[in-house]
Amino acid sequence: MTTTATPARQHARTMLNKVPQVTLLFWVIKIMATTVGETAADFLATNLNLGLTATTVIMAALLGGALVVQFRARRYVPWIYWLSIVLISVVGTLITDNLVDNFGVSLWTTTAIFTVAMFTAFGVWFGVEKTLSIHTIDTVKREGFYWTAILFAFALGTAAGDLIAEKIDLGYWKSALLFGAMIALVAGGRFLLKMNATLAFWVAYVLTRPLGASIGDYLSQPKKNGGLGLGTTGTSVIFLAVILGLVGYFTVTKSDQAPELQPA
Fold first, then answer.
1. Helix, strand, or coil here: 4?
2. CB contact at 8 A, 7 and 61
3. How big is the chain by its Cα radius of gyration, in Å?
């Protein structure tokens, strides 16, 4: 006998939205997470002498574990989500670093490769789901598209950031200003010119990766290389502490959760 699923049963197959509300603090923690991705990768590979290959294997395994927990959750949980973001930021950095340092692929080529990969991920996502909105990450399929696009965005951000700061020789702090100005233009387009909200979000999201990488390099690199000389250890510890504080704030206040998740 054929039966028709009731609305309640159909709803049970989906999840509550798995992405936090986009607020100012969302962008603060996102940029800091990308900065940690840059400095933590350098710290593990260089300062701890793990090397790029071993560091990549370890961090990829940790990311895989975090994403398993993230996918199994039925709703947005701050510590799970932001742990996954930090780890995918580190892995995205390591993917680019491996291609450049271990396999000799130029930054120009890696930037082009990950640009194509990212746009392909977005194209397939939109082709299947007819939306790229982060407000409807409420099925396993959409969440899979979401994390895939983010991984390529992080890898692209590392390649593009290093390309502009090092190969084009703009320098770290000037690169940070450049990407910050580009994000400001996107914000202006959104709030003043009514730019499409989904498009504005993803353009800004992609740009925060090279912004965070440039900030991380500027803070951590030696002064002789154009940085402030705080080192990867100090920079990573400071930013991780702020991230933990913000995640704790989100957990207690639930201020970054969608309205349906907040207590009545």
1. coil
2. no
3. 19
C-alpha span between 38 and 161 (Å, rounded): 10
Q: Which of 88, 75, 101 is nearest to 209 (CA)?
A: 88
Number of Cβ atoms within 10 Å of the Cβ of 105 = 15
What is the CA angle 151-153-157, rounded to 5? 120
pTM: 0.87
Residue 101, class by beta-carbon neighbours within 10 Å (0-12 exposed, 13-18 middle, 19+ buried)? exposed
What is the rounded CA–CA span in Å between residue 140 and residue 163? 35
Task: Express each pLDDT in 167-203 by its tens digit.
Answer: 888 888 898 999 999 999 999 999 999 999 999 999 9
Do 160 and 111 meet the contact criterion of CB atoms below 8 Å apart? Answer: yes
Closest CA to 156 of 215, 102, 223, 88: 88
Lowest mean pLDDT among 84-98, 158-172, 179-193: 158-172
Of the candidates 150, 112, 146, 151, the one whose C-alpha atom is nearest the C-alpha of residue 129 is 146
What's the 3-state SS for 194-209?
CCCHHHHHHHHHHHHH
Sequence-distant (≥ 6) Cβ neighbours of residue 180 within 8 angstroms:
211
Burial 178-216 (b: 16+ CB within 10 A, else e): bbbebbeebeebbeeeebeeeebbbbbbbbbbbbbbbbb
